[in-house]
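Task 17 of the worksheet. Students: predict the tertiary structure of the chain below and write it out as structure tokens. Keep your answer in the requested format; marks are given for formatting as well as content.
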Amino acid sequence: MSASIEQGNQLYGVAGGAARPIGVDLVTQALLTLDYAHHEVHEGSHFFYTNSLDLGSGISQVYLLTTPDTTKWVHMTFNYEHIAVLQFALFEGADRVGTTLQTAFNNNRNSLNTPGLVVHKGISGGTTDGVQMVNDLFGYSSGNSRVGGGDRNDHELLLKQNTKYLIRLTSSTADQLIVLRLIWYEHTSKT
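Model answer:
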């Protein structure tokens, strides 16, 4: 192929006000793309929080999420894994106060950006958990045997700005091993 034909067949996109060539895999000729959440990782606007815990039967762990009062909105997915019966409840509009500030991490370890979303483990004060949005119960137990159960809620939830969200994990089984992962990016709304 001549250089002029390759240039004639090149696809371009506009980024930052300049035309840039769109990448194509040399072997398969497949278009090289990133989904939007992956793009946010590269931009340094994608964050995560992970907590592992062992709860007894009927015991709950509560987390309070506070979104910033800006138009940089939180696009959240929730992931929780457990070995037996677990209730996952999500509330919007809580008036509770968080007790133990948690550390969230940027997925782009070269970025100095920090999240606007604040995560606390445990709550105090206030009078309401807010409006219950999700009430999931997953897992299995039979006699003394336990069958692993889990859920991956991969539906993105765009959290309301300047709002408190409460997550309550409640174990229905003794010695319940749980991993909670909060995964989100923060993007300034154009609307």
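Marker's comment: The chain has two domains: 1-33, 47-188. DSSP finds two helices and 15 strands in the chain.
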